[in-house]
């Protein structure tokens, strides 16, 4: 790319030095002594006033692919932009601007003075540039601090044992699985033997493909099992006690030494786990995988294509296919993108759908009940819990529907998934309000889940009566929390 740098002072020279080698750079400098010094340093220099047509043409402005203006003199700047545009209407212009002049003001002044329609593509003010640089530095210090604190805690635990149990929520999704795997990699670099466990099911066909294709070692455990009791320390990833985690007994909580999550912090969390536990809970981040990617980046731990693909897909799923991203998620995507195995990613995203999932999806469609723009659907007694979430995702695509709740009965509990695209609704808060008093519920603004023990519903005479009672209670509570009247 042919780049013209207008001005060979401190800023112009620094820019030219940074671009030299990668781009074809020419510098226009009016001062003869400075121009000669630049030439002696190996730069292509045009000695002249860059606000004049002859100088710009001599420098090849008509063939330039980028022009960078470094003067802070607004009068010279206005004239220069006009002359550039007279000779090259399309070349991108980047300019430095005094702090008290805005880009729109500059363009308006040029158009008024020269009675011409011109444009300046990019402008940088020293004050804003300094502010942005300081913010980036502070963010990097914060990132490094979080990673260092995690390593410090791991080293502290390593002095007492070489075993670490990493626990995910009951029905782990790609975000939880990828995050747990990344934490395992970090711990293993410090000499730990790790085991990743969960207590429920991995039933979603994409999630099963994710685990199988990436070769991730997971183990299902039951509450009170020896597998849980034999580990002296526990790390929780993408979950918190008393949330979507039922595998731990109260006595296990004191062994929790690490907790990494992106969900809202649960009430009384500090009372449940030890005071010295490492906590990194960031509700403003949309995936735990992004937090773990930040650790790996800060710790300079090399990533295999499998690990990068796992984290990338975890972020992809929890951010609704990158539709909602925090700056932490964006940084993680940038870090991972060049390391991902995209052929493998395609296989994970498009696995064959199981017959059971197809049948549950059909039930969700057939059993749907519509209340204005809200759908509630009962899929009955099932074993594949993840199919409930898949059904909710599908029903949200129906024309005119903005909010969906799907529920089914799995073993001795009612499992619920809800989705919304209504910006006025925080579905996680709605689920907490609706079902918090009879079970648990929560999530994010657009998606969430709830779980209700069957409890009194077991008094129903038969399965049909149980489903009717459950549907009536769930529908009433959900619509009340949404402030939607039945009808």
UniProtKB/TrEMBL annotation:
Gene Ontology BP terms: potassium ion transport
Domain RCK N-terminal: 1-124
GO molecular function: nucleic acid binding
Name used for this protein in its record: Phosphoesterase
Gene source species: Thermococcus celericrescens
């Amino acid at each position: 790319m042919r780049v013209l740098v207008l001005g060979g002072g401190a800023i112009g020279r620094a820019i030219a030095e940074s671009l030299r080698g990668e781009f074809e750079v020419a510098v226009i400098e009016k001062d003869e002594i400075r121009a000669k010094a630049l030439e002696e340093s190996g730069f292509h220099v045009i000695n002249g006033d860059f606000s004049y047509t002859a100088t710009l043409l001599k420098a090849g402005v008509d063939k330039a692919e980028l022009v960078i203006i470094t003067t802070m003199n607004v009068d010279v700047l206005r004239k220069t932009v006009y002359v550039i545009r007279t000779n090259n209407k399309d070349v991108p212009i980047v300019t430095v601007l005094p702090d008290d002049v805005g880009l729109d003001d500059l363009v308006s002044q040029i158009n008024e003075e020269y009675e011409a329609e011109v444009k300046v593509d990019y402008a940088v003010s020293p004050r804003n540039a300094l502010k942005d640089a300081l913010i980036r530095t502070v963010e990097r210090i914060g990132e490094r601090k979080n990673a260092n604190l995690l390593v410090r805690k791991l080293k502290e635990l390593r002095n007492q044992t070489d075993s670490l149990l990493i626990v995910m929520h009951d029905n782990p999704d790609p975000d939880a699985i990828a995050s747990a795997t990344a934490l395992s990699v970090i711990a293993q670099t410090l000499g730990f033997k790790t085991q990743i466990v969960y207590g429920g099911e991995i039933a979603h066909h994409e999630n099963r493909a994710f685990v199988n294709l990436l070769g991730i070692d997971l183990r299902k455990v039951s509450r009170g099992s020896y597998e849980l009791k034999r580990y002296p320390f526990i790390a929780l990833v993408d979950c918190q006690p008393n949330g979507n985690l039922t595998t731990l007994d109260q006595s296990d909580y004191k062994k929790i030494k690490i907790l990494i999550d992106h969900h809202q912090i649960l009430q009384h969390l500090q009372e449940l786990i030890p005071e010295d536990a490492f906590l990194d809970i960031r509700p403003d981040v949309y995936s735990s995988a992004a937090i773990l990617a930040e650790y790996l980046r800060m710790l300079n731990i090399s990533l295999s294509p499998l690990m990068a693909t796992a984290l990338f897909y975890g972020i992809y799923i929890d951010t609704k296919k990158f539709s909602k991203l925090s700056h932490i998620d964006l940084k993680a995507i940038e870090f991972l993108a060049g390391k991902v195995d995209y052929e493998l990613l395609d296989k994970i995203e498009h696995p064959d759908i199981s017959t059971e999932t197809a049948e549950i999806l059909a039930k969700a469609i057939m059993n749907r009940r519509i209340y204005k723009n809200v759908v509630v659907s009962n899929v009955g007694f099932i074993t594949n819990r993840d199919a409930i979430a898949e059904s909710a995702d599908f029903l949200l695509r129906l024309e005119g529907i903005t909010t969906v709740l799907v529920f089914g009965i799995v073993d001795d509990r009612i499992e619920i998934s809800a989705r919304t695209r209504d910006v006025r609704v925080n579905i996680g808060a709605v689920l907490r309000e609706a079902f918090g008093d009879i079970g648990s519920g929560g999530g994010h603004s657009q998606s969430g889940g709830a779980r209700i023990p069957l409890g009194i519903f077991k008094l129903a005479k038969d399965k049909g009566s149980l489903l009717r009672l459950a549907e009536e209670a769930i529908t009433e509570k959900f619509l009340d929390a949404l402030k939607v009247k039945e009808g």
